[in-house]
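Notebook, p. 212. Picked up where the previous page left off. The plan for this session was modest: take the two constructs that came back from the sequencing core last week, fold each one, and keep the raw output in the notebook itself so nobody has to go hunting through shared drives later. Recording the first one now, exactly as returned: residue sequence, then the structure token string.
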Amino acid sequence: NAQTCYECKQDSVVDGSVGGSVLLPCIFTGPPPKQINVAWRDEDTKAVLNIKNGSPVFSDQNQKYQGRVFSFQEEFKNGNFSIQMKNLQISDSDTYVCTMIPGGDERRVQLRVSGEMKMISNPEVVADTPGHVTHRSLLGMGIVKVLTVLLLLSILLIDPVF
């Protein structure tokens, strides 16, 4: 039905990092139905978030997602049923399906979560080599990412391409 369909695109792919948060998009175009019901499910059909009569319902949310998945109720009137997933875990890597009820139109979003976030309670500064100082708790990025960024910056400063 051309009047009421999800954005006609290929499935979305969203990348996230452990401990971070992502927005899983679900936009419904056309006039919104009088009764807004949307079901977000993961690939195992676990309830990620249900939206009933225009309000998010957390009571039937799967335990895995409790306290980590939220919607933007003020956007429902615009056909936007996107959700935010916080405190990402590797196990959150999955395909999520947003289904409009009634109608059955659906939007699929593939979430890929990567990396490890290591939080250190007492941040320390480490000098690996003379003139090379890194900070172990730099927003949980991990020492390898920090070293990679520093290496790339030093290469650019020594041999500018531009």
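Okay, moving on. Second construct, recorded in the same format:
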Amino acid sequence: MFFLARYCKLLEENSFRGRTADFFYMLLFGATVLTGIVLLGGMIPYLSESFAKIIFLSNSLTFMMVYVWSKQNPFIHMSFLGLFTFTAAYLPWVLLGFSVLVGASAWVDLLGMIAGHAYYFLEDVYPRMTGRRPLKTPSL
């Protein structure tokens, strides 16, 4: 819950300032991608058991927001539990490692990273390469 509140607030106040519709569109895109991945993953024989255990995607959606924030703010210095410092670009990997250490499923975090990377690529990288923006928020 802490990560949801913190990174949702940071994204909305910094990256999406004055662009509430774009922020909502990012969340909608993430929820759609995560749902699609879990539905398709449930059809693959060796992965179906892992995906069947994922009931709620809210943690993956939160992890997606952490991933997008870390990609947009890669040079911010952070500390993890006061043990070591790193830049924000490595935050998703540090959290993934911590999840594995405490025995949580890595799939939840990995799904969030996949959805976050899909959004980051289509919103930031691809438009710089081609000049086209496939995730342009629809307007009325």
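Notes on construct two before I forget. The beta strands are 77-80, 84-87.
Flagging for discussion at group meeting.
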